[in-house]
Amino acid sequence: MDKTFHITTFGCQMNEHDSEIMAGMLLERGYRQEKERKDANIEIINTCSVRENADKRFFGTLGQLKRRHEKDPDFVVCVCGCMMQQQRIIDQLKAKYPWVDLIFGTHNISRMPDLLENVLSRRDQEIEIWDGGREIVEGLPARRLFRSKAFVNITFGCNNFCTYCIVPYTRGRERSRAPEEILKEICGLAADGVKEVTLLGQNVNSYRGTYEDPATKDRAADRSADYDYCSFSHLIRLIAEIDGIERIRFMTSHPKDLSDELIRTFANTPKLCHNIHLPVQSGSDRILKRMNRHYDREKYLGLVEKLRRAVPDMTISTDIIVGFPGETEEDFEDTLDIVRRVRYDSAFTFLYSIRKGTPAAEYEDQIPEEVKHERFNRLVELVDQISAEKNAAYEGTVRQVLVEGRSKRSRGSLSGRTDGFKLVNFPADPKNLPEEVRGDARTVQEMEDRLTGHFVNVKITKGKTFSLEGQIVSAN
Ligand code: 5AD
Ligand code: SF4
165 among the known binding-site residues? Predict the structure, then answer.
């Protein structure tokens, strides 16, 4: 049988990257990856459990797959990711979906190809779920989504236990990779043409690596902070030394761990992009306390001020939850107020969603759905208005953009990101481009091949709510 697979990924960038790793491992073993589910005979669903609608979409997808499975007994279905770390989901799968072939958790990714081989040879349901806190498995390959940019895990798990969040239960306690392992991986990526790395973790700025080699420590140390362990700022400085890596980003950071050292690192490490995702979750001190966030609005606003003082062109994005249990109209007004004060470049807004097993699920003062929705709409309107105003201010400026490939929005255009993570779309018909940019390309496809993975300078002609439009003025 020709072994072809397709992966459906729900959820965050950690999940996207886990899917890249699974694809990398399967490709190494001779499987082929398909772009469309219908073309593959192995379907892998990588699930998310952060909000309830992700659960619903997962079971919806399984419903669709069941029909195919009934018609085609050779069709293999594998499910993995955060949802599998919850016993009630496993019970449900065993009881109602016995035809699912393989079930594994977030800590067993490295075992996936072996588990799949077992399934293919025996065709029995295979289940392997480990608890959190296992040792980190190094050296797994990844099939990158982009040629020029890559995700790199630096921490796994989370110790914060925000009262609404399921992640500490599904991803386990926080563990940091050794700096040397991270540097080795990034050197390999640079050799493969990667220019931009995004360091991933639930809470990257609490990264605390143990040096495997004293020489790395000597290179990382600076006079302002000479620790025995590798701090997040040390790690960034070490990565910035790697030739070929031009941009460093990270996500996500927790305001309680945003140190002065990191703010200084932003100011004095040119490769560290001037962009931060800094989830605020709520603007109300009372709600922040109930969420167990360990900061108040004054502390948060102080951080934003320090960041902007150190790096005036810093772009800031955030996550906000609306309708957390006990949220009053006044609390919600505090959230609107903090959004007006910070003026975020963009914000991910979420309706609070009950997650069984978390403390907030037990709170009695849950907010009615219609109140949540009404607040949500008001918040989105404000967030979008500010994003559009911020983006309009880019009009007329020239920005350096790392080209990622064909634009998803407009045909005949390419897209890429600025240092501040703004998405920019720009036409790529070679006839209308300067000769220096066009070279001998004659079609948009040839322009895409020529520019993907390279920097270009783009003059911004329009700032929209979620993206910028522009014209290439020169190559870089
Ligand atoms: N309900 C709604 N949003 C949530 N998030 C995490 N848990 C929940 C929940 N139970 C949001 C937070 C987090 C983002 C990844 O998802 O804003 O930062
Ligand atoms: Fe969840 Fe809070 Fe950890 Fe983020 S910091 S993953 S919101 S518990």
Answer: yes
- The whole-angstrom separation of Cα 146 and Cα 340 is 35
Structure tokens that stand for 453 in this block: 């993975």
- Between the CA of 224 and the centroid of ligand 1 the distance, in Å, is 35
Strands 230-231 and 175-176: unpaired
pTM: 0.93
Q: Is the pLDDT of residue 292 over 60?
A: yes
Q: Is residue 91 part of a domain?
A: yes
Residue 226 lies in a domain: yes
Q: Is residue 100 part of a domain?
A: yes
Q: How far apart are CA 53 and CA 200, in angstroms?
A: 24
**10 with 81: CB under 8 angstroms?**
yes
Domain that holds residue 17: 4-128
Pocket test for ligand 2, best of 254, 280, 281, 352 (most atoms within 8 A of CB): 254
DSSP letter for 33, please.
Answer: E
| Cα–Cα distance measured from residue 245 to residue 402, given in angstroms and rounded to the nearest whole number | 12
63/209 same-domain check: no
End-to-end CA distance of the chain: 47
332-366 per-position pLDDT tens digit: 999 999 999 999 999 999 999 999 999 999 999 99
Q: Distance (Å, rounded) from C-alpha 285 to C-alpha 280?
A: 11
Domain boundary among 350, 370, 392: 392
